[in-house]
Each structure stands twice: as C-alpha cells, then as structure tokens.
Design goal:
InterPro entries: HTH_LacI, Lambda_DNA-bd_dom_sf, Peripla_BP_I, SBP_2_dom
Strand content: 15-25%
Shape: elongated
Organism: Bacteroides oleiciplenus YIT 12058
Strand order of the largest sheet: 2-1-3-4-5-11
Order of helices and strands: HHHHEHEHEHEEHEHEHEHHEHEHEE
GO molecular function: DNA-binding transcription factor activity; transcription cis-regulatory region binding
Protein name: HTH lacI-type domain-containing protein
CATH architecture of the largest domain: 3-Layer(aba) Sandwich
Number of domains: 3
Largest sheet: 6 strands, parallel
Pfam family, one: LacI
CATH class of the largest domain: Alpha Beta
Length: 334
C-alpha cells in the first residue's frame, strides 16, 4: 500500500473484517459504551497502528466542537522557569489527550494580544496565559467572551478569572526570615519596577517579615529595569552595600543572574560577607563562589492545577477557581 495514501476507517474495517461504525467506536474511545469485545478492540487498534492511521483532527473537531488543543502564552521562553513550565505543560497535556500550542509575549501587551488572537483563530479549546503588565483589558475581554482561560504565575485581583500561582507573600516572608535568623541585620529585596501582583506580593512578604522582626526602618527595595537588569544592578547594588545592606533577596531567577554578575565583580571579601537568596535554583548558582539558597516553585503542582481547571472549564463552562501553591525553601550551605 502506498505510504502516501490516506488511511480511512473503511480501510481498517475491511482489514479487520468488521463494520466501519465498530472501528469508529474503538478509535474514539467508546468501546465500553457500545460494548465492543476486548479482543475485537485490540485487533482494530493493532491494525490501525500497523496501517499508520492518522485521525482527521479537523473533521473530529467539527463533530465535537473541540480541537483538543490548548494555547499557552508565556512571557519569555528563554527564562529557565518558563521553559521548564513549557516542558511540563506539554507532557501533562499529552497525558490528558491535548496538544499544546505555545507563544511568547516578551512582556509586551500588543504582542500578547496578537499571539492570543492567532491561537484562538487556530481553534484552541482554551488558554493558559502568563499575563504581562497593562494587559487587564485584554484578559477582561477574553473573560467577557466566555473564552476558557486560566492565568498562570500572575493574575489581576479585580478580574473574576481563574488563576494558579505561587503564594508569593509566604515565599518571601520565609526567605527573609531565613536571612534574619541566619544573623543578617539588613537584608534588602531586589525586584523589577513593574506593576504586577506577583512582584507586589513578593515585596509585601519581605516587608512584613522585616516589620515582624522589628526592622521595618531597615527594609529596602531595589528596583531594576526589566529591560536592562544588569546595568541597574551595577549601579544600585554597590551603593546598597556601602549603605549597610548585608544580604540580598532576589525576586526572580533572572534578577539573581544579573545581580550575581555584579556581586562577583565586587571581590571575594565582599562576597563572603553577604547573604544571598533567590528564586528557582539554576545551575548558575552552583558555579558562584558563595552559597545561594532559594525558593523552589512547585512547577508540576502549578501545571497540574492549571490544566485541571482549564480542562474542567472547557468541558463544563467557566467556573472561577483560584489556587495559590506554597513553594519550598531550599537552604544551600557552604
């Protein structure tokens, strides 16, 4: 048989000696519903595999109204955290019978809107979105149009939409308390100058831990420019150290990398005196000449929750569900 020929249900039925309807029941996972015998079902599946049968997804989606595809919009695929999530999302979605189509917003609302529009035009059944700054109107429009959607990592409290994220407040509270309990007197947090909830909550957790320790007046927040973090770090971190900062809490893994370059250039004497905590351990931490403890986000839990909520919304209509998952603090000792 020519490898170019499109294999049909009729071809499989003739090879198996059964009706086309029976083949359809088996290949669509309805063998129990239509009481197809186990041996017959196995024979049909074996023949379909041997004939390299490829289902017509377009026709199937027209019959069911669904394409079994999910659109995922992340902020930056080069970010190790999001590339890890993409890998897990693809694997977990496959287990649930879904294909994932990815796009990156690069933290740009207009690009995010274009990517979302393209994914919707491709017929995705629902969307998982890492929203960027100033994208509230876009997200609200999707909600108003009853598009199944789950926000990931970040969310907008004023919009009634499902989301899954880290409990950022608890994460930085725990990390700050660790630094204080380790004997550091004036740790500061290094964050991005963006108006997004995950960053606000990380700063809030840090400030609350400082306040509870009676060190509210020593709380300091360094804001880096998101598009030029290394330049911002080179300019601001030495000033903070000269002013008495003895530890740093980096609010993202990309901030960690930018700041570690700056601290490395300050020399080993300075490095030995400074406490360091980041988010999401990376191999770069292993090569730094001082221990960098970190908050590990439960990536698999976050992905499974997001997929579960989205698939439920696709099947049953949008019901708002919100999940904040706790991270795990990983202490790295010399």
């Amino acid at each position: 048989m020519s490898a170019l020929k499109k294999i049909s249900l009729k071809d499989i039925a003739e090879a198996a000696g059964v009706s086309t309807a029976l083949v359809s029941f088996v290949l669509n996972g309805k063998k129990k519903e239509y009481r197809v015998g186990e041996e017959t079902a196995k024979r049909i599946l074996k023949i379909a595999q041997e004939m390299n049968y490829q289902p017509n997804i377009a026709a199937k989606s027209l019959r069911s109204g669904r394409t079994k595809t999910i659109g995922v919009v992340i902020s930056d695929i080069s970010n190790p955290f999001f590339s890890q999530l993409a890998r897990i999302l693809e694997d977990e979605a496959t287990k649930r019978g879904y294909t994932v189509l990815f796009g990156s917003s690069d933290e740009d609302t207009e690009k995010m809107n274009r990517v979302v529009s393209n994914l919707i035009n491709k017929g995705v059944d629902g969307l998982i979105i890492v929203p960027c700054e100033n994208s509230e109107k876009s997200i609200a429009s999707l909600v108003d149009n009853n598009v199944p959607i789950v926000l990931f990592d970040r969310y907008f409290p004023e919009i009634n939409v499902s989301y899954v994220a880290l409990n950022n407040y608890n994460a930085t509270y725990t990390a700050t308390k660790y630094l204080l309990d380790s004997g550091y007197n004036a740790p500061c947090i290094v964050a991005y100058d963006i108006n997004l909830i995950h960053m606000k909550e990380r700063i809030r957790g840090y400030k609350k831990a400082m306040e509870d320790a009676g060190k509210k007046r020593l709380a300091n927040v360094i804001f880096l420019k998101q598009d030029t973090p290394r330049k911002s770090a080179d300019r601001l971190l030495p000033k903070m150290i000269e002013g008495g900062a003895d530890a740093f809490l980096f609010a993202t893994n990309m901030i960690s990398i930018a700041c570690l370059y700056t601290i490395k250039d300050l020399g080993q004497e300075v490095i030995n005196k400074i406490g360091l905590v980041g988010f999401d351990g990376t191999p770069a931490f292993d090569f730094f000449s001082a221990p960098v403890s970190y908050v590990q986000q439960p990536a698999e839990v976050l992905v499974q929750k997001a997929l579960g909520i989205l698939i439920d919304n696709i099947a049953n209509g949008n019901t708002v569900q919100s999940v904040l998952a706790d991270g795990v603090f990983i202490e790295i000792t010399p």
